[in-house]
């Protein structure tokens, strides 16, 4: 589904990664590992097309991603560090616009999606009165609302409590079982009932240095 | 996996405008502050330059135009700042929908929120500045055609500087030179009307500038936003 | 062949009463040229100096 | 030819190539500018209308032309950078901004000095002066925008977008100012083009000065671009070699 060939990225005169190759298919999980500042977030943003300072090739369905932008964006859900939730709006209003901005009609599914993240009854509360964890859940509820073949999640477990983490893990496992491709960064030891491919940015860089 | 029906581009645009209007309704400062700036700044001119009505009528259209232009420039901060900070901008850039129309929808809503109130009050303030009655209509028509252009140009500047922590005066340095043609033709329309000359040609020119801005500036805004989130 | 258009050097400097304007124009012009040539030369010297320091730091 | 052009896209080759041509360019410039200025200042007959004052035109006109040409150049290199990601193109665009700004400032200053005896005042809202002033604002905006960015790449791209926006706007600004000026100003403007037909002894030195100034512009541009190359390529081997050579030459290694 997604393939990277010989990715190279340099930031502020420091090579973050080089000669990075991997491919990710439906039903697979890929975890990007690395110490702080090793370029995990940068890599995800490069794959999403939000960052263009890289060399190498990225393919989507075997086509260069530059030619597949619309199909790619149609099928990818990205969760960044920032929750992308406007605090003056309620969860319902936030999610409604999120769906609309992607051209997906929400069909009244929003309350159910919120309920799946333990936010039943919070539809109309303004987001600024919610806690960081609750806002995070609103942000995560977006995954349930749009059809996507691939989820790219940057630290999805941040600010979640134990139960939230467990619920999210179940949801991720279900997504992968249904044939979705999952790419994520996390410092939390993943407990998914499926094989996990690990891409270690620290190691990839060392190997390239030694070769 | 959910398979919900797709929305047409029209409903996407309507939803975007609705969200922006809702946001303006929730934080009324976005509507009131540009308006208050306009009112106060216009009031400063008679106080600073003298209340002689002959002097005032000479500068009235210029004062209205310049303060409108500055009000628009200062209001730009609310166009992308919040979206940039909470990450919504990234999501917008990753939307499969054409960014061109999403951005046009955002700028259109900004115009509705920040400019329309000024436009409604402008004739009253023009009259307060002793602008002769013949000048009121061309002033309003000019503002109607010119302020959307100003919003689009301002959005380019804001998109370029949204990633910078302090952008207020930089924004002014970047976009005020680009505002000059609109100012020149806008005030020119009023002078023409006061000199009993036809001003429709100038209005057509301002319309042409608006069309050009609608065609090109969303491309520049999109490019600038991609640079800013990088 | 073009001829010297002034009777004397003093008249040349007087520029027919326009000395102030003509010579200050050429003065501004010369300053601009000098600035645009000297600034990069000085900048280059500074760059080389910093790089030298860096090289020596790295080699020691 | 194309090959040669592509080679200039590599910072290192740009550096060595300009190393070779810079002395030639310098000599041409010195000769052209020296002859042209001496000729124009002392050996051309005074203008029947403006007297000796018209000698300012020898620098004012090429400066005003170059101010605009430099902007066009900056915008085209910006486009080259955005489209083909040629790094040298951005470095040239970056070098254009301060040079263009100083040239525009001198065009304004000489225009004003010319104006005092001609118009009786050092500043009038003449169409040309005004639109040149606005162009100076555009240059200043681009310089300010670049200096506001920490990241070189983001700053480069932002400036490229702004230069292109500016280049679309420049004709509109020029047209609007011209129109505005005819509305507000009586038609009393004097300029070089109005001073009858110019005899060859007037325009030949002008030709010399014009090309001399163009040469100066290219030298200044190349010098700045080379500095920029040294800064951005400072980690590469060839810059280190260059610095090491420089150390040997100056004998303080």
Please specify the SSE layout and strand pairing.
The complex is a heterotetramer of chains A (211), B (230), C (60) and D (253).
Chain A: E1 2-11, E2 14-24, E3 29-33, H1 40-48, E4 55-60, E5 63-64, H2 69-75, E6 76-79, H3 91-101, H4 110-116, H5 132-141, E7 150-154, H6 162-177, E8 181-185, E9 196-200, H7 201-210
Parallel strand pairs in A: 3-8, 3-9, 6-7, 7-8
Antiparallel strand pairs in A: 1-2, 1-4, 4-5
Chain B: H1 9-26, H2 29-49, H3 53-75, H4 77-86, H5 88-93, H6 99-128, H7 133-161, H8 168-194, H9 200-229
Helix pairs in contact in B: 1-6, 2-3, 2-6, 3-6, 3-7, 3-8, 6-7, 6-9, 7-8, 7-9, 8-9
Chain D: H1 2-8, H2 11-43, H3 57-84, H4 87-119, H5 127-148, H6 152-184, H7 200-232, H8 237-250
In total, how many domains does the architecture of chain B comprise? 1
Overall mean pLDDT of chain B stands at 92
Beta-strand portion of chain D reads: under 5%
Oligomer: heterotetramer
Strands of chain D, count: 0
Structural notes for this entry:
The complex is a heterotetramer of chains A (211), B (230), C (60) and D (253). Chain A has 7 helices and 9 strands. Chain A has helices at 40-48, 69-75, 91-101, 110-116, 132-141, 162-177, 201-210, and strands spanning 2-11, 14-24, 29-33, 55-60, 63-64, 76-79, 150-154, 181-185, 196-200. In chain A, strands 6-7-8-3-9 form a 5-stranded parallel sheet, with helices on both faces. A 4-stranded antiparallel sheet of chain A has the order 2-1-4-5. The longest helix of chain A is centred in the last third of the chain and has 16 residues, at 162-177. Chain A is globular, with a radius of gyration of 18 Å. The two termini of chain A are 29 Å apart. The model of chain A has no long low-confidence stretch (mean pLDDT 86). Chain B is globular and about 60 Å long. The mean pLDDT of chain B is 92. Chain C has helices spanning 9-14, 19-59. The termini of chain C are far apart. The radius of gyration of chain C is 22 Å and the shape is rod-shaped. Chain D has one domain. Helices cover 80% and strands 0% of the residues of chain D. Chain D has helices at 2-8, 11-43, 57-84, 87-119, 127-148, 152-184, 200-232, 237-250. Chain D starts with a helix and ends with a helix. The chains are: A alpha/beta (211), B mainly alpha (230), C mainly alpha (60), D mainly alpha (253). The A-B interface holds A 48-53, 70, 73-74, 76, 78, 80-89, 93, 96-107, 109, 126, 144-147, 178, 180 and B 1-7, 9, 11-12, 15-16, 18-19, 22-23, 26-27, 82-83, 85-88, 90-97, 102, 226, 229-230.
In brief:
Chain A is of the alpha/beta class and 211 residues long. Chain A is 33% helix and 25% strand. Chains in contact: A-B, A-D, B-D, C-D.
């Amino acid at each position: 589904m997604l393939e990277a060939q010989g990715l190279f990225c340099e930031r502020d005169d420091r090579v973050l990664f080089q000669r990075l190759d991997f491919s990710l298919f439906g039903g697979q999980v890929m975890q990007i590992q690395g110490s702080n500042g090793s370029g995990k977030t940068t890599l995800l943003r490069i794959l999403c097309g939000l960052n263009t300072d890289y060399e190498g090739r990225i393919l989507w369905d075997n086509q260069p991603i530059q030619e597949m932008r619309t199909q790619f964006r149609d099928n990818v859900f990205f969760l960044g560090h920032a929750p992308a939730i406007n605090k003056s709006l309620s969860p319902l209003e936030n999610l409604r616009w999120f769906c609309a901005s992607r051209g997906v009609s929400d069909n009244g599914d929003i309350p159910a999606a919120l309920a799946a993240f333990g936010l039943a009854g919070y539809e109309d509360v303004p987001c600024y009165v919610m806690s960081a964890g609750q806002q995070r859940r609103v942000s995560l509820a977006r995954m349930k609302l749009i059809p996507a073949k691939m989820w790219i999640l940057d630290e999805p477990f941040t600010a979640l409590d134990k139960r939230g983490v467990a619920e999210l893990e179940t949801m991720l496992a279900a997504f992968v079982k249904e044939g979705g491709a999952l790419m994520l960064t996390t410092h939390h030891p993943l407990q998914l009932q499926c094989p996990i491919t690990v891409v270690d940015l620290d190691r990839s860089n060392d190997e390239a240095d030694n070769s | 996996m959910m398979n919900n029906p797709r929305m047409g581009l029209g409903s996407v645009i309507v939803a975007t405008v609705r969200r922006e209007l809702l946001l303006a309704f929730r934080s009324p400062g976005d509507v009131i502050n540009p308006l208050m700036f306009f009112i106060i700044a216009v009031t400063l001119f008679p106080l600073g330059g003298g209340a002689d009505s002959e002097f005032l009528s000479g500068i009235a259209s210029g004062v209205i135009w310049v303060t409108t232009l500055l009000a628009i420039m200062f209001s730009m901060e609310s166009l992308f700042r919040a979206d940039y900070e909470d990450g919504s901008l990234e999501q917008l850039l990753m939307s499969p929908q054409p960014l061109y129309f999403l951005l046009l929808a955002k700028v259109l809503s900004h115009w509705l929120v920040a400019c329309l109130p000024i436009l409604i009050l402008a004739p009253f303030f023009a009259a307060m500045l002793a602008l002769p009655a013949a000048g009121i209509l061309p002033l309003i028509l000019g503002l109607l055609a010119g302020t959307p252009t100003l919003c689009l140009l301002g959005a380019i500047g804001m998109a370029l500087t949204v990633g910078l922590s302090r952008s207020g005066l930089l924004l002014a340095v970047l976009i005020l030179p680009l505002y000059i043609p609109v100012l020149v033709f806008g005030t020119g329309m009023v002078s023409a009307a006061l000199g009993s000359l036809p001003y429709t040609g100038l209005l057509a020119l301002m319309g042409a500038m608006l069309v050009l801005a609608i065609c090109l500036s969303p491309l520049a805004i999109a490019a600038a936003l991609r640079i800013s989130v990088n | 062949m073009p001829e010297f258009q002034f009777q004397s050097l003093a008249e040349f400097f007087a520029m027919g009463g326009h000395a102030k304007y003509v010579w200050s124009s050429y003065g501004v012009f010369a300053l601009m040229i000098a600035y645009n040539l000297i600034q990069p030369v000085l900048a280059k010297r500074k760059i080389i100096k910093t790089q030298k320091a860096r090289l020596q730091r790295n080699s020691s | 030819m194309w090959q040669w052009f592509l080679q200039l896209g590599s910072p290192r080759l740009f550096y060595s190539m300009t190393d070779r041509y810079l002395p030639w360019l310098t000599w041409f410039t010195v000769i052209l500018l020296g002859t042209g200025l001496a000729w124009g200042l002392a050996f051309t007959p005074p203008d029947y209308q403006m007297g000796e004052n018209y000698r300012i035109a020898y620098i004012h006109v090429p400066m005003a032309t170059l101010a605009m040409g430099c902007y066009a150049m900056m915008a085209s290199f910006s486009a080259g950078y955005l489209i083909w990601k040629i790094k040298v193109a951005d470095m040239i665009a970056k070098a254009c901004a301060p040079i263009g700004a100083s040239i525009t400032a001198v065009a304004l200053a000489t225009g004003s000095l010319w104006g005092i005896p001609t118009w009786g005042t050092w500043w009038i809202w003449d169409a040309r002066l005004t639109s040149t002033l606005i162009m100076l604002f555009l240059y200043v905006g681009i310089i300010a925008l670049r200096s506001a960015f920490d990241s070189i790449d983001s700053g480069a791209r932002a400036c490229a977008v702004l230069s292109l926006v500016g280049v679309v706007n420049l004709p509109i600004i020029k047209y609007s100012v011209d129109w505005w000026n005819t509305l507000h100003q009586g038609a009393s403007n004097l300029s070089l083009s109005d001073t009858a037909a110019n005899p060859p002894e007037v325009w030949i030195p002008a030709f010399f000065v014009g090309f001399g100034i163009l040469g100066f512009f290219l030298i200044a541009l190349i010098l700045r671009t080379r500095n920029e190359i040294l800064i951005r390529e400072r980690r590469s081997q060839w810059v280190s070699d260059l610095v090491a050579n420089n150390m040997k030459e100056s004998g303080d290694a």
